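Please review this one.

:::
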Amino acid sequence: MNYATHYLYVINFLDRVNLSYAISAGMFPDIGVPKSSADLIAGIASALFFVAYAIPQVFTTLRINKVGVRKIFGIAFTAWGIITIITGFVQNVPEIYALRFILGLAEAPFYAGVMFFMGVWFVESERGVANAFFNAAIPVAGIFGGLLSGEIFTVYHDNPGWRYLFIIEGILALISVVILWIVLTDFPSQAKWMNKDEINALESDLDIEQKNKALKIPWKKALMEPDVILLTLVYFFGVTALYGYSIWLPSIIGSFAHVNAASSSFLSDIPYIVAAIALIFILRYSDRKGDRKKLTAIIFFIAFIGLAISAFSISNVYVSFAFFTISAIGIFTFLPVFWNIPQESLTKESSAASIGLINGLGNLGGAVGPIVVGGLETVTHSFVAGVYGMALFALVAGILVLFVKHSR
């Protein structure tokens, strides 16, 4: 089952960041945007996804608590598959703005839904590795996306290559609907592949965990808990750095290394590969030691140091790229460690609502990051200022998480 959610998140993340490869291939000048403002317009297009993404979060996760994931995920994957395919045919900026906004609405239930789903299927001792495997989909999607886009741009060139990229990845999302419907089971009580004793043992362990959680309060009050508000801020700054990095990764590499879109797509695999390897070791360490809060802070500080040194050493492309790659360890590995905190401190219904709030409002950072990086590039004609900006966001997130009270 964890393999299924991992695969689904690979497809989900591909559809989120395929815009990054299209940007580096000149998508926005191709649809009539002047090169002088293309990066800012691209940043706004990326941001609109996250503005829409925040809208239905709390209520969709509460609904998942009642009906399970298959129906909601099936509708979501169908919608965003169609939207992504249509994106391959856009002709102007209003069309891409509208499609990215609708795509954000369509994808809203997925990530928070899976985080809640993990709390239903995995006990505390297993959840860290389960989260690690699931969130490893981000660097895996980055690796696959870099190879796919690089190959498409090599064969079809930048244009119409970026159009084929959207069409192919939209088709993959539609295929995923069949897979999730066959493979996923909403709740342990419905699992036909477990015997009655196994189901009872799992539900008993989860019930005991529920009774021992730190915050036993109704979901509406949980939303006002200081820790929930603080975690929302931490997630906001972390996601700001994450999507500032992932949306502009191929473009930053292309700018720093002076290579074309195909080459920058292939090179963008290197940070993702490093992050994927680091992620497994970090989560195993997290489950052994159990100190989620301090480890999350350390991860953010790694991102801060890597990004800051990368920007500072821009005159040496090899050193800059090396530290830019190191920063990926922090950028892409904080998610599974971070999400253990609300999963382990809140009871079931409170967890569903709080995860929705944290994910929804926190993901507004995905609107800020791309605009900040793209806007600074438009003003300064360099990505250096944007990389420093991402470093600052990671530093703030690392400091704030240390003030969370209810955490292992």
